[in-house]
User: Fold this.
Amino acid sequence: MFNITEKKNKFYSFIHQNRRIIFSFAGSILLLFVANNTAYAVDNSSGVLGTVSNAVGGVVATLIAIIALLVSSALGLLSTLLIQVLINIASYSSFTGAQAVITGWVIIRDICNMFFILILLIIAFATILRVESYNIKKTLPKLLIMAVLINFSKTIFGLITDSAQIVMMTFVNAFSQGAGFFVNMLNIVDIYKGVALSGTGWENWKVAATLILAVIASIVTVIILGVMIAVLTVRIVMIWIYTIFSPLVFLGFAFPPIAKYTGQIWQDFIKQVIVGPVLAFFIWLALTTQQSTPLVNQTTVCAGVAEFFCEGNFQKFIITIGLLMGGMMAAQQMGGAAASIAGKGLNWAKAVAGTPGKLALGTPGWVAGKIKMGAFSDLLATKKTVDVHDEAGNVIGQKTKYVGKKWSRGVGGALANFAYGLELNPVNMYKGIKEGLASKTEKDKMRGIVASSDALKGGGVLGLVKGLGVSRDMTEALAHGFFWADGFKRVIAVARGTDRKRMGISKELDKAFAEQKALEKDGKYSKSQIDGQREKAMDAKERYDNADRSATSPEELNKLVEAAKEENRILKEMEANFDSEKDNKVSLNNNKIEQLRTDMTHYRPIQTFYADRDRDALISQTQQKLGNTNNEDLLKELFKNAIANKDREAAAAIMLHAARVGHLNEMIHSWTSKKDVKEEYIDENGNKKERIVIGEGKKLHQSGLGLNELVNQALISELGMSEQQAYAVQADASMLAKSVGHFNMAETITSENGRLKQLSQANHMGRIRGEARKVDARTYLRNYNRIAHGDEIEAEDGSGRDFKINDLGFRTFLENPGAYRYLVLRNEFNKNAAMNIARDKKRLFEFVDKLKGAGTETYWDEYEKKEVSYKDVADSLVKYGEIISKTSVGEGKEKLGVDEAIKQMRESGAKS
Amino acid sequence: MAQQTKLKDQEFFAKVQKTAEDLINDNNFTEAYNLGAGLNDSIEKAKNFKIESQELYRKYKELAIKLLWIGLPVMTKNEVRRIFRDHFVKSFAIFGYDHWVKLKPILLAIMSLDDRDAFKKQLTQVLAENQEKITNKKLLISSEEKDPTVGNWILDYNRSLGTSGMSGIARTQYLVNSINIKNLSKEEKERIQKLFELYERLKLSSQTLEGYEMDVPVNEMGVNGTIRQGVFEPTPPETKNDKIIQRIIDEMMGRIKPTASGGEDVVGGTKGVQNELTQLKILASEYPAGSLERRAIEEEMGKLNAE
Assistant:
C-alpha cells in the first residue's frame, strides 16, 4: 500500500545520506552563477538558465544580497571612520611636548647624571690598576662630552624626529585635505554604486555576487587602513618611549660596557622615525598614481550594477591596495614594533585577498574530486559489473558500468558513466602534468648520464670528453698517484680506446690459448717432458726391482713388469718424437700470454659506480610504481607499452619484476621475433652450418635463447639501450629467474675480459647444468616446474605452445634416475613438470634408446638396491604425467579442486 | 571471497586443503600466494566465523599462512616483514622449507644495495620482535627464565655472541655449548640452527663479497666459473663420458645432424667405437710392447679415443 509517511522518511533518509553531494552540487551551481555573472555578465534572463534562475535563485539571491549589503555597508562606514583617524594620526607632530615624555625624560636624565659619578670612580681605579680599556686618557674626554649631551638628549631626539616629520608632513598635507581623497582612491563609492535589488531573479544574482565581492574588497580596505593606523600609533608611542630613554643612549656612548644595550634603543628609534615618512610617502604615491596614471583605458560603458568591478575601477582599487601593501612591506623590512604590526597586517590582507581565489579553486576542486571518484555518478545511477564481449560475442572480461536509476533512466546512466573518473580540477591536471614532466626530465637527465657512462667505459678521446658527464666517477677513477700521475696515465690509456684495445688484446689472447692447446696436442715432446717421463719409467722399473719376491704374487709381479715396460715404451716414443724447439715454443707462448694479460689490465674500463647506482635507482623507482601485481597479462601489456613509449627503465623494471614473480617466460613468449634467429649446427658431413631456430614473425622461445633475443630485439634494437647496459639488466633477470627455479633462463650472461656477454644456448646449458647439480635432486624434482626441464616453443600450427625437453632436462634425467623413480612412485614429483615431460614423451623415449645404444641402459638404484632400466623410469614418469593431464583443465594448468569458491579466492588474492 | 556457509562446510575445507597441499608440494609460489591471500581475506572478513568456528578458522589460517610462506617471492616488502614478525615459526611446518632460497628473489629485486641492506636489517629487527614460541622449554637468559620465543632466542644469541657478524665456528660453538640449546630435542635444534643461519645471512651487508646475493658468472682469461658469496667456484671440466652424452644430447637438440644413414647409425657408431676399442686392446696385448705392430694398433686406438 502506498504510504506517504514511509515515502517521506525515505526522502529524508535520501537527503541525509546524500547531504554532502546535494550541498556540493547546489554550491557548485551557485558558484557557477556567481562566476558567470559578475561584472560582465551576459544577460541570460531568457532561456532555460534564466528561467531556473528566476524561479529558484531569486529568493536565495535576494537573501544573500541583503546580508552582503548590510556587511559591506557596515564596513564602508568603518572605512570612512578609519580614514579620518589615519589622517589625524599622520598629522601628529608634538612628540617632545607630550606630558609623559617631559616627566619621564627628567627622571632618566637624573639617574644617568648620577651614574657619571660612578663611572668617574671606575675610570680612576682602572687608571691606577693600569686597565688599558678604561684608561683616563681614553675615556674621560668622551665622558665629558656625553655628560653635556645627556642633558640635551631630548632636544637632539626631538630635532631628529622633527626632521623626519617635516618630510612626513609634506606627504600628509597632500592627502589630509579631507577624507574624500581616500574615498576616491579606494573606490569606496564605486563599491556600492548602482547596487539595488531589481526584483528579478537573475538581476538579484548579479547584485548578490557583486556585493559578496564588495564585502571582500571592503575587508581588505579596512585591514589596510587599520594596520596603517596601528603602525602610526605604535610609532608615536615608541618615539615617546625612546625619547624618554634618550639619556641612556648617550651614557652608552660614554661607557662602552652598556653600549650594547643602549645602542639598540638608538637603532630602534631611528627605524621608528623613518617608518612614518616612508608610510606617508606610499599613501601619497598611491593617491597620486591612481589619479594620474590609469593602467587601463576604459573604453566600454561601465555603469550601474557592479561598476566597482568594471575593468578600470577594479584595477584602480588593486593598484592602490598594492601600493599601500608595498608601504607596509617597506615598514616591515625596517623592523621594530611597528614593523611587526605591519607584517601581521600584511598577512591578514593577503589572506583575505586570497580568499576569493581559494574559494574559486578549493570548492570546485572538492566538487570535481567527488565527481571523479563517482559520488555524483552514484547519485544518478547504480554501479554494476558487466561482461565485456569481443566482436564475435564471446565474453572476454568484465568491467564496471553505471546503469541509470529508475528516475534518471538512460540519461542518468550515460551522465554517470561520463562523469565517473572525469578529471575536472585544473589544479590536479596541472599537478599531474608538472609531475609527469619532472619525471620525464629526471629520466632524460639520467639517460644522458648513462650514455656518458657507456661512452667513458668505451674509451677513446670522445669517450673521455663524454665521460665528463659522469665527472664524479671519472674523477674518482683518475685521481690516483703523486700529482695524479697514475690517473693521467689512465687518461692516456682511456684516450687510446679502452674497448677497442681490450677487444684486440682479447683476440690475441684467444689465439695464444689456441696455440698452447695445439702445442699440447702436436705429438712432439720437449726435453723437459721427456725428462719427466724418464723419471716415471725409472720409478716403475725400481718398483719392479725392489718388489719383495716372496710376498708378491706372480700376477702382481707381471703387472709391475707390464707397467715398467709401458712407461719405457712411452719414453721411447717420446724420444722418437723429440722436438728441440718445443720448450722454447711453449715458453715463448706462455710469456706472450702473461704479457697480454698485463696489457689487458692497462685497458680495463673505468667503473662508473655512481652512474650505475643512479640508473639502478631509476629502475627501482619504476619497480615501485608497478606495485605487487603478479598478473601475467597485465605485465605483458605493461612491457609492450614501455616499448611503445620508448621507456627503457620501465621495460627493464617490468622484466625484472616479471622474473621475480615467475612470469619472465610468458613475457619472452609474448614477443614476436622481428628476424630469423639462427644457430650453428654440424651437418651429416661434419661441416658447420646455420639453421633457423626461431623464424621471423614467430613467438620467441621460452628459453635462454629467447631471453637473449628479447634483450637484443626489445631493449637494444627497439629502445636503443647500450649493449652492456642491456646485458646488465639481463644478468639481473637471469639471476632472478634462477632464484625462483626457472632454470632454463638462468646463467645467460657471463663476464668475459671485463665485459658482459650473452652465452650461446649450448654454453648457457653447460653452465646451468653445473648450477642445477648444486641443488638436491629430490628438491629439484619436487619443487621446480617444467621450466627447469625444458623450453616452450610456439606450436607449428600456431595453436599454442609445445614443450620440448632441453639439455638440462635430459641431463637431469640421466644423472638422477633414482630421484625420478622415488618421487614418481610417491606422487611427489612436480606435477607441472611431469605433465609437460609426458607431452614430449616421444623425445624422452628416443633419448632413452640412444642411451641404450651408447651402453647406458640401466642404473643401480640406491633406494631399491637393484638395477633399474632408464626405460622403466621414463615409462612411470610419462604415465604419472598423463594421469595428471587427464584431470587437468585448460592448457598446462592443473585442476586443483574444481570449486568456483576456491577459484574466486585465488583471483581475489591475485588482485590484492 | 568465499561465503561463511561455504567456509563452514567440511567438504569445502577438504578441497581447499587438497588444493593447498598440491600447491605447496609443487612449490607453485604464484598460485600459492594468490590462494593464501584470498583465503586469509575470506576468513577474516566472514562475519563471526572466527568466533563461531574457532577450530575451522584456525585450520584455514594455518593453511593460508603455509601458502603465503610458499608465495614469499611474490610478496611486497611489507608483507614479508609482517610474516617474519608474526608467523615465522609456522614456516617450519612446511617440509624442507628454505627461508633464504625463498627470500633471495625479493632481495635480488631490490636494485639499490643500500635499500637491500636496510631491508635485511628490518628483517633481523622483526625477527627479534617475534613473540612466537619456537621451542618448548623456558630459556635462561641472564639468570632469568623467559619464554622460548624467536625474539628471546635472538636475545640470548646476541648476548652470548654479540651483535656483529659471526663466523660459522662461533655459531657452532653456541649451538653446542649454550645451556639453552642443551635442553632441546633434535628437531628443535634444527629449527634454532636454521633461525640463526638465516639471521647471520641477514646481518651480512650486500655490499660485501660474502653478503652479495648475486652469483657472478665469470669467463676470464680462459677460466670459467661462478663467484658466489665471495668465493670463486670453477666450472668442472667435462669428462669423456660427458662428451659421449653431450653428443647424444646435441643430436637430440639438432645441433649435430646424425650421419647420412640416420640416428641409429650414430648410436651404433658410439657403441661401435667402444667395441672396436675393446677389440684393439685385446689385439695389442698379443704383441710385445714397443713392437711395430703394437705401436700401429695403439696409434689406431688413439685416433678412436680422440674421436
Notes: The first strand of chain B starts at residue 139 and ends at 141. Residues 263-285 of chain B form the longest helix (23 residues). Chain B touches chain A through 83 residues (CB under 8 Å).
